[in-house]
Design brief:
single chain, alpha/beta, Aspartate Aminotransferase, domain 2, Aspartate Aminotransferase, domain 1, 2 domains, 7-stranded mixed sheet, 3-stranded antiparallel sheet, binds pyridoxal-5'-phosphate
């Protein structure tokens, strides 16, 4: 029997759930016509900061631009080493390079998939011994919705004098030790790309900080380095502003965000229970909750992922691979890598497989996904 295909992400169903609030918010923007940095953007900044307990939030044009603004504020550039996991989305490595800094790739934990603090310490020691680059910053990526090992990362960063950036692009809404992510590093960035845990209908991002001076600096940098008046240019900045329409969409989505996080958690638990003895399920970071942007399993060693994906597709079960190639092996970044093997990242790239996890999956669909995965790997 062929099943109707399950969407990997169902933005249409979600839109129907928030239709009234969404329309009201969008009409508000169409009425005042302040399309960029309008009142919705300021309201969103307040809501996002309150939600995660941060003192300041600066809404920007994307998660990538958020990283760039945070790094420009620290003057990170030529001669600086920026440590980051090899197993992440390309944007994490791209920004240091755009600013003239050098990404130094670190391996990840084989169970949680998060940056490995022990390997980070090794990589910092190697850079110091090489005397060519100055260790300057570490980007802890909260991968797939879960928190990186922030206590360990912060210990190392404090000892080494590194700036810490929490790349929370996939994990806004997650908690660590009972507190939402947003204040655990020197700066935290979020992305509102449509497929993230909180997604706009276009690009968007945010930067969170506890420092008043950084809040002011981020606001200046996002608008071409402007001063107190629009045509006073104090520094080299960029166009990193957020659209009011995106803020309006995000404000509408925030009304259901907590509920959505709970539903995703329920689905993750079902996957854990039903799949745990057939595949490797993602290990939970201790004392944390996940935003479950992505639920990735590891297929048995030696299994053909292509074959499993094809069998699942026949059953109407879509899958995705984050990430088929670690960053240090990408054509664009290979030349910036010192050749150190990163065996965990390389192995994950071959075995990992993401299943649908979104709040509009029905119980019957989740059941069908579990049955199909068990059959496909069996
Ligand atoms: C999505 C993502 C980004 C970039 O966010 P954009 O809003 O797409 O620019 C950065 N880092 C990670 C880990 C991401 O997943």
């Amino acid at each position: 029997m062929t099943q109707p295909a399950i969407p990997f992400l169902d933005l249409k169903a979600q839109q129907a759930r928030i239709a009234t609030e969404l329309r009201r918010r969008l009409d508000g923007v169409l009425a005042h016509c302040q399309f960029i940095l309008g009142p919705e953007v300021a309201e969103l900044e307040h809501e996002l900061a309150t939600f995660c307990g941060a003192t300041h939030c600066v809404a920007v044009s994307s998660g990538t631009d958020a990283i760039q603004i945070a790094f420009m504020a620290e003057g990170i550039g030529r001669g600086d080493a920026v440590f980051l996991p090899a197993f992440t989305y390309t944007a994490t490595a791209e920004v240091p390079l755009v600013l003239g800094a050098t990404p130094v790739f670190v391996d990840v934990d084989p169970r949680t998939f998060q940056i490995d603090p022990a390997h980070l310490a090794d990589r910092i020691a190697a850079v110091r011994a090489g005397r060519k680059l100055r260790p300057r910053a570490v980007i802890g990526v909260d991968l797939f919705g879960q928190a990186a090992d922030w206590p360990a990362l912060n210990d190392i960063a404090a000892r080494e004098g590194l700036f810490t950036l929490d790349d929370c692009a996939q994990s806004y809404g997650a908690t660590l030790h009972g507190k939402p992510l947003g204040t655990v590093a020197d700066a935290t960035i979020a992305s509102f790309f449509p497929s993230k845990s909180l997604g706009a209908y276009g690009d968007g991002g945010a930067i969170f900080t506890e420092r008043d001076d950084r809040d002011a600096l981020y606001r200046s940098l996002r608008t071409h380095g402007e001063g107190t008046t629009r045509y006073e240019v104090l520094r080299t900045g960029m166009n990193g502003r957020m659209d009011s329409l995106q803020a309006a969409v995000l404000l509408a989505k925030l009304t259901v965000f907590r509920d959505e996080l709970e539903i995703r958690e329920r689905i993750a638990r079902t996957y854990d229970q039903r799949l745990g003895n057939a595949v490797v399920i993602p290990a939970r970071v201790p004392d944390s909750t996940s935003a479950w942007a992505i639920y990735s399993i590891l297929l048995p060693e030696g299994a053909s992922r292509d074959a499993v994906q094809a069998r699942l597709k026949e059953q109407g079960v879509p899958t995705a691979v984050y990430y088929p190639r670690p960053l240090h092996l990408q054509p664009a970044y290979r030349e910036h890598h010192d050749g150190t093997p990163l065996p965990v990242s390389e192995s994950l790239a071959h075995r990992i497989l993401a299943l649908p996890i979104h709040p509009d999956l029905s119980e019957a669909q989740v059941d069908h996904i579990c049955t199909s995965v068990r059959a496909a790997v069996g």
